[in-house]
Design brief:
about 90 residues, alpha/beta, three-stranded parallel beta sheet
Amino acid sequence: MSADNVFAGSIPALYDQYLGSLLFQPYARDIADRLSYLTEGRLLETAAGTGIVTRALGAALSNQVQIVALNQPGAEPFTVFQKEKPRRCAKT
């Protein structure tokens, strides 16, 4: 088989790098804008997946807001935590 017809690589990483951001970045910014009124406390994000929304929330919210990001048990590890841990963010 030639290399151009065999998939090789990390699906979560490729999704995060190309397709995920392309499809979901506008929605992530919208959600972060809608929650930008939060000035303190904790925010629970469920089904955090690749962390596209988590990163947008981390950039938009006050430093006094802690983000707790959850993913379903047995799911792929958070791509966002493999890159770098967003400020104020706890993975459970």
